[in-house]
Amino acid sequence: MYLVNLHDKLSKIFKAHGNIYLAIDFDDTIFDWKNKGYECDYVVDLVKRCQDKLNAKILLYTCRQGEALEEAVKYCESVKINLYGVNDNPDYPKNGSKMYYNVLLDDKACLPETCAVLEALLHEK
């Protein structure tokens, strides 16, 4: 039922606004941190397809700071992920609260299921 609800919510948001805010974790979601052999190419490809077909505004959501954060941003640029914000959504300033997004891709937060919902939305467009 959760996946149906998520799909319905994202579909309504996309129809109402013509885009979605897609937050992405960095380490072990789109980048194999510590070279553990994690396959991240699929998620990178999915994010780029969401940019193209769902007009997704991509928000990098990571605990990285300083030089490590700069490396993450450069990596996103190198794989053609166009970041709309980094740990912040320019359209909705945090003011001390968490960053606003419609959906999060994170290896520790139901990544396969969330990817499946986004794939379904992409196939509808």
How would you describe this protein?
- With 125 residues, this protein is of the alpha/beta class.
- The chain has one domain: HAD superfamily/HAD-like (Rossmann fold, 3-Layer(aba) Sandwich).
- The chain contains 4 helices and 4 strands.
- Helix 1 packs across helix 4 and helix 2 runs parallel beside helix 4 (111-124).
- It is globular, with a radius of gyration of 14 Å.
Short recap of the structure:
With 125 residues, the chain is α/β, with parallel strands linked by helices. Helices cover 45% and strands 12% of the residues. It has a single domain, classed as Rossmann fold (3-Layer(aba) Sandwich).
Give short descriptive properties of this protein:
alpha/beta; Rossmann fold; 4 helices; 12% strand
Task: Record the SSE blueprint.
Blueprint: H1 2-17, E1 21-24, H2 41-53, E2 57-60, H3 66-78, E3 83-86, E4 103-105, H4 111-124
Parallel strand pairs: 1-2, 1-4, 2-3
Instruction: Determine the N-to-C terminus distance.
Output: 22 Å
Supply the number of helical segments.
Answer: 4
Q: Low-confidence spans: pLDDT under 50, at least 5 residues?
A: none
The amount of helix comes to: 40-55%
Q: What is the name of the CATH class?
A: Alpha Beta
Order of secondary-structure elements: HEHEHEEH
Percent of residues in beta strands: 5-15%
Q: In which order are the strands of the major sheet placed?
A: 3-2-1-4
CATH architecture: 3-Layer(aba) Sandwich
Rg, rounded, reads 14 Å
- Count the strands? 4
Give the CA-based shape.
globular
**CATH fold call:** Rossmann fold
State the major sheet: 4 strands, parallel
Mean pLDDT: 93
Q: State the CATH superfamily name.
A: HAD superfamily/HAD-like
